[in-house]
Here is the input.
Amino acid sequence: MKKMLLGMFVLLLTLAWTPSAQQLPDCPDLARAMQDLVRADVRARDFADLRRYRDDNAALRPAPGRVVFMGDSITDVWNQPRFGGFFPGKPYVDRGISGQTTPQMLLRFRADVLALAPTAVVILAGTNDIAGNTGPMTDAEIEGNLTSMCELAQASHVRVVLASITPVSDYHGRPPAPPMTTRRPPSRIVAVNKWIKSYAADHHHGYLDYYSAMIDEHAMLREELSEDDLHPNAKGYAVMAPLAETALQRVLVGSNGRR
Here is the structure.
């Protein structure tokens, strides 16, 4: 694997320095290819990125009412100060990893969720599967991985909140990069979200509907909620946070009003 990556790297550098391609180093395609090489190398070494939270998990002390948020970059960057922090004062733990797909999350689910002994887990996943970040994925494969995570949680008596995949848009496109809806067709997002809602209802899980609260009249991610047509900005997270809290209360609070 290392020899293959090294060979591809040398080939790209050779092409970049040919007289007919003097501008190639500035070419978005070359930058994207180099990015893909780095990601492929990282995945080859640690596909699920188990090392990302290993030390943090070991240092985490028991906490009553702990909730783990499992996800990709939308979860990962939520704890940045520019977004108001990650549920300040709450025993909530962010275990998002940028770029990840459901097979990667499934592999690290025991280490990054179950081992932390949470009361509940919020799962937001699927957009990167649709985009093919770790290879082509069918809707059924995405749904199967989500099912496996839910079953693991149930077996460990961890309550589940399944979140809908957030919408995308084309309002902030930066050519020559393709529109966000090209890699993440809205029709697939709608289809998987329909399954998530149905599965959550059938298995008595919480359903967290980010999608409906974030779309506009064109069924696109509202322009003011993102700067890149995919990731929420501060306004986007301000919409998401109370929805997450409400969904959690529904699964955590019993009929007697106590957790």
